[in-house]
Amino acid sequence: MIKPTLEGELVRLRPIGARDGGGLWEIVSDPESRRVTGQTAAFTRAEVDAWCATVADRDGRIDLAVTASGSDDFLGQIVLKDIDEARGCADLHLSMRPSTRGRGYGGDAIGLVLGLAFDGVGLHRVGLEVLSINTRAQAIYEGMGFVVEGLRRDAYRDGDGWCDAVEMGILEDEYRFGLPA
Length: 181
Known about the structure:
Elements: E1 6-7, E2 11-15, H1 21-29, H2 31-37, H3 45-54, E3 62-68, E4 74-84, E5 89-96, H4 105-121, E6 125-131, H5 135-143, E7 147-158, E8 161-171, H6 172-178
InterPro entries: Acyl_CoA_acyltransferase, GNAT_dom, N-acetyltransferase
Protein name: GNAT family N-acetyltransferase
Domain N-acetyltransferase: 11-173
């Protein structure tokens, strides 16, 4: 599987490694991050560190650290997972450190990974799931060309209540049509 380093306007993506444990720990232990991603599993810092140290060796996925151009500081992670080359599809996941949200890093990272998915890996479709309470993320994905494909009602907890999971996807032709000339 391709383990690339990609350069965008705002970000540089590189394979996640052991040095990224602290940044990923900040994401998985942040209450708001857990809420808007529907994360219910609890991880220890040691588990997060071990994950970062070994994830690059796992098949069927590409886990990349989002760093600012000109810096190697971990801002977030973007993952192309459940890659099925025979079916030509994969799922996308993005999570950013709380202090880095809203600065355009995520959108730049998504664009780079879509280019990798369609031009590097040769996929036909990239899908994702976003919680209905995460309207900022849904707007970013729609702006990148993702289309709402379905809704799983009350699929996640939101405090004492429930929220829906919005299923979204983008096809290779939609990606190519949406690229600037």
